[in-house]
Fold this sequence. Notes:
Layout: H1 2-5, H2 9-19, E1 26-30, E2 33-43, E3 46-54, H3 63-78, E4 82-87, H4 92-98, E5 102-106, E6 110-115
Amino acid sequence: MEQTYGWDQDWQASYFKQRFDPAEREIIRCNGIEVGVVSVNETEGSLFLSSIALLPRYQNKGIGTAVIRNIQAEAREMGMPLTLQVLKVNPARNLYERLGFRVTGETDTHYLMIWSTSAE
């Protein structure tokens, strides 16, 4: 975030207070340990992976991959594509591409990506 937008502590606190809804997130657990959080929303005609975050010590261990593959399976069962957006500076784009997502557009700050069973 800081790389893209800079950091304004007051703005961050206000934005978080206005937009963070814990009911929209699920805790990711691995072997009974809380390791991260994920949020998926159903939009008109697709599932949207609005966020996935793992604690640093649990990154690069295949956990995020497993979570995303489970979401892809859910999307497949529903007959819907899975979409997301990723900051251009975020190396997670490589993970998404390895999992079959492709870039469909971009903003000044983000890549818009989609995965669908037809793209497999």
